[in-house]
Every structure is written in structure tokens, then in C-alpha cells.
Amino acid sequence: MQLTRLALSGFRNYAELEIEPEPGLNVFVGANAQGKSNLLEAIAMLGTGKSFRTSKDVDTIRYGADAAVIGGEARVRAGSVNLACTVAKSHAGTRKTYTLNGSGVRYSNFLGKLRVVTFVPADLHLAGGPPSLRRAFLNVALSQEEPRYYRELVRYRKALQQKNALLRTATTIDPELLAIYDRELVDAGTQIMLARHRFVEAIAEAGRAAHARFSHGAERLDAGYESNIVFERPDPHAIAAAFEARLQHVAESERARKAAVAGPHRDDLSLALDGHSLAAYGSQGQQRTAVLALKVAEYVVLRERSLEAPLLLLDDVLSELDEERAGAFLAGVGDYEQAFVTATQMPGTLPQRARTYVVRNAHVDTGVAAC
Amino acid sequence: MPSSGSVAGPVAALINEFSKLPTVGPKTAARLVFYLLNRPRHEAQALAEAILAVKDRVRFCSICFSLTENDPCPICDDDRRDARIVCVVAEAKDVYAVERSGAFKGRYHVLGGLISPMDGIGPAQLRVKELVERIGREDPHEVILATNPNAEGEATALYLSRLIGPLGVVVSRLAYGLPIGGDLDYADEITLAKALEGRTTL
After folding, report:
1. Is residue B181 domain-resident?
2. Which chain A residue is nearest to residue B189, measuring alpha carbons?
3. Cβ separation of B159 and A158 shorter than 8 Å?
4. Inter-chain touch B19–A91, beta carbons under 8 Å
5. How far apart are CA A141 and CA A303, in angstroms?
């Protein structure tokens, strides 16, 4: 897929902006704090509806503006789509609305119309950080890919909140009511675990191949799906049965701890190098290389599964990584239809089909193609 | 929105009161206040009296817990209505919604909300015990669970069906489906899947 037009109004430091990106590589070049990352953030929000930098939507509204509007047009396999995401100030904080081809739609119908794989400096903590980062990595990728995954995730979270509230606050817990929330957790959780299991299997393979290239075959990267629900076969019946059995097993301890302890909300994606946990033993360099491989794998798997290449968004990664590794990353990704990259300096070597834009104080000048 | 310093005290006070109402923001509240300022006094008085009358004269029906001026409410008091079918709803406003359909001639039971532990609402906070007692007392043939088709409504319906199913009463749930006059194209996937599940033979 390809973004053919991006229009911003009242977004971050942009009062008004309209650009028409090219297929292939688009490079935003500029000094710090000029608005390069804001462009990538806006493009990502057209895909996921959420910012990769903040959970406070109000931060995306330009100082003095009432609303931030991100509009875009994309060419996808099925034709072209027109997308818009609006964050408006309201008396209760902010209100976010989505439009698809001119009509207002729910978030679940907006999500994933434009698919993006982002790689930002914060992602470098993916290997060494807490499990929640790796669950978020799985959720962002899978929610874009399958609308159903996102629905089940919402259903699961809601039931989990209710169950936790019941365990925490009720003086005598009604077993019938607890059973209803457990039923819901099993139903939704089974679909989540199945999707995660399959996805991790796919990225493990693609990640191992990418990592072998980065490390010149010196080390072997293993990625595995790690859940506290141990199931024999990756099919819905086996998973549901294992989940139910686990819930029974921990029922007493859940009551004692007043919290739901069993289920995919405690999942992790384990990463190991030659059999040793990366989080525990990996050097910073090893962790970075692994993340690089994982991101390449995410991109490759999403492209294979949908037969359509997602947009690739690389924020400041060229400067965080040395040029050799950045080049290896783009080479590892292979055929990308369209990528957006930010950099503080004009990169020394650029592939063909690259277009550079100079970003200075919320103005974007379409430079000449670098080659 | 005018700041509180720029308008007369009573105006600011009324804007503040209106903006506490659901779905009313400060802009709408200000518009309502300035509208009322331009209307004759008796209209404002009628509004004020209607608001007080609601608080003073409306109470819960001791049988179905719907809102009523007289106890029991006109629906529970109407012998022509079928006492053998009880429709369970979350709120009194849902009684009016079902009544508008004109398709239901039974009685109601208002729960007073939906089960949601995260909002501090469990079965004990709702009129669940009263429903069970009523079933024991009136021995209805069927109980229709007409809670909203969202997570809380589903959980509440499921909970009630487990609770009252063993009492020997037929427990039914409103059907899920497509809106009349709608278009299959525009139906979301979940609604369509539910409509397929709940299809009926012709």
C-alpha cells in the first residue's frame, strides 16, 4: 500500500500542511524539534488511530488549536481509501473521531485500513524491557491485521477489568458471577492466544533468517510464544480446555491475591540468543540486533499474510543505528512499497527511488530526488 | 463559553447546573440559558415546577420498580396485561422503549442497572432478589431478558438466566439482528454473524 497524500491541520507543530509522498523511500531531513517525527506519528495514526509517542491525545493538538486533523489518501490493493483521524478538545478532555471515505466510522472499522510497521528509538527496549512492551508489539501488529483480534482483545480486557473488580471489592464473591467473567475470558482469550501463537511462529522463522544475516550467522535468534496457559495443540478446543483447567487450578489463589493471574494478559514473547535469554544475558548491542531482526520479521510477515506491503516508518533509526546496520535493515526488509524515514543529516548513501524533504520549523520543502 | 466573571451570577449558576446534565456541555448549557432568558416567565415557571414534580411525586412501583405517580403503576394495575410474561429491563426508560413498540402485552421488572463490578454494581445493588421473590410469588410462565446487547447487558442476562432457570420458568433473550429498513452491506460483522446464528425458518 501507498500513502499518496497527507494533510495535517492543527497537529503538533503543524498549522496546515499538505504533502504528496512518493512510492519508495521518503526521507524527512531536518534538525531536532522541527517536526520530522510528528510526520511519522501522523502517518502511523492513520493506520492505528493511536500515537506511538503518547497516550494523551490532547498532546497532539497544536497549541491554541481546538482540534488536530490528520487526513490522508492511500492506494491499496482494493483501490483507494480516504482516511481521517480527528482529535478534538471537548469539555470532558478530548474526543477522537474517524472517517473512512468521507463517512464517520467506529475505531474498529478504521483500524488497519492503512497498515504500518513503525520502528522508533523506544522500540530498542523491546528485547530488554518488561513483557508488557512485547505484548503491545504483538497487539499492534495483530490488531491491524485482523479486525477480529482487536475485538477479542477489547472483549477480553473488559471481562478482565470486571473480574478484577469483583475479586478486589466483593466481600463475598458470587461464584455464578465469577463463572460468567471466566467464561468470557476463555472465549476471547482462546482467540487471542491462537492468533499470538501463530504470529510468533511466523515471526520466529522470519526473525531467525534476518538475524542470521545481521550477525553473519554467528548467533541464532529464537523467538517463542510464552503463555501461562500451556496447551498441547494450537487449536481452539485444546486452548480453551487448558485455559479452563488453569482457571480452576488458580481459583483459590486468585481469591487470595484478589487479582486474575491466569490468562494471556500475562503472556510474553521470549527472545533467546543461542539458547540464552536476551533480556537476562544479552548485551545492549545484541538486544538491538535482535529488535532489528524482529521488526524486519514483523514487516515481512504482515506483508506475506495480507499480500500487500505495509508502510514502513523509521523514526530516527538511521541515527540511532550505524549506517551499516540501517542499510542492512532496509536490505533485510527487501521489497518495500513505501517507507518513511527521518534523519538529522542527509544520509550518505540512499537507494534509488528516494525522495528527500527538508523539514524546518513545521514547513516541509519537497527537495529534489537525491539520485 | 462565557467565563463566570463576564455574565450575571444567576446566569452563570444556571449554566453550571445545566452542564451537569448528561450529554449537555457548557456550550449547550449556555444556549439553553439564553433561550430561557428570552421566554416569558410562565414558561420558566412551568419548567421549574415540572422538574420539582418529577422529584416530589414520582416514585418506584412496589411490584415492578418502574417509575410511577401511583403505586402500583398503571401497567401492573392493568388486568388486561398478561401477568404470565415478565420482561426484565435495566432501567425505567427501557420500559418506555418496549412500550413504544406496542408488541408487548405482559408485565415488566426494572433491575435499576446492570451488573458491573468495576462500577461497584453487583447483583445485591440491583433488584435481583425482588425478581426471584416475584417469580416465586406470581409463578410466571416466561421471563424475557431484555438487557442491552453490550458486555454488561450480556453478563447480567447470563447471570439472571443461571439464577432463575432452575425455578422452572422459561427464560428467553431478545433476538439480535439487523435493523428493519437497513442494508446488509452496512451491517457490522458481529451483528451479521449474530443475525445468522439467530435466523428463523420461514
Report:
1. no
2. A148
3. no
4. yes
5. 11
Cβ pair A366, A36 in contact under 8 A: no
- Residues of chain A with Cβ-Cβ distance to B122 below 8 Å are 166, 170, 174, 177
Query: pTM of the predicted model, to two decimals?
Result: 0.86
Mode of pairing for the β-strands spanning A221-226 and A268-273: antiparallel
Judged by a CB distance cut-off of 8 A, whether residue A66 touches chain B is no
Q: Which of A186, A127, A124 is nearest to A155 (CA)?
A: A186
Whether residue A166 and residue B122 make contact (CB cut-off 8 A), yes or no, is yes
Query: Closest partner residue to A180 among B19, B155, B188, by Cβ?
Result: B155
Say if B123 is an interface residue toward chain A (CB within 8 Å).
Answer: yes
- Overall domain count for chain B: 2
Q: Test A162 with B163 for CB contact under 8 angstroms.
A: no
Say how far apart CA A30 and CA A24 lie, in whole Å: 20
Give all domains of chain A, ordered by start, each with its CATH number: 1-115+309-371 (3.40.50.300), 123-307 (1.20.1050.90)
d(CA B123, CA A174): 9
Please report, in tens digits, the pLDDT of each residue of chain A (371 residues total).
999 999 999 999 999 999 999 998 898 999 988 999 999 999 999 999 999 998 899 999 999 999 999 999 999 988 999 999 999 998 778 999 999 999 999 998 899 999 999 999 889 899 999 999 999 999 999 999 988 899 999 999 999 999 999 999 878 899 999 999 999 999 999 999 999 999 999 999 999 999 998 888 889 999 999 999 999 999 999 999 999 999 999 999 999 999 999 999 999 999 999 999 999 999 988 998 899 899 999 999 999 998 889 999 998 876 666 667 777 777 777 778 899 989 887 766 666 668 889 999 999 988 654 44
Count CB-CB contacts under 10 A for residue B192: 15
E-strand stretches of chain B: 59-60, 67-68, 82-89, 106-110, 142-145, 170-173
Q: Do A181 and B155 touch (CB under 8 A)?
A: yes
The reply to whether ipTM tops 0.85 is: no
In terms of residue numbers, what domain contains B42?
4-57
Does B191 reach chain A within 8 Å, measured CB to CB?
Answer: no
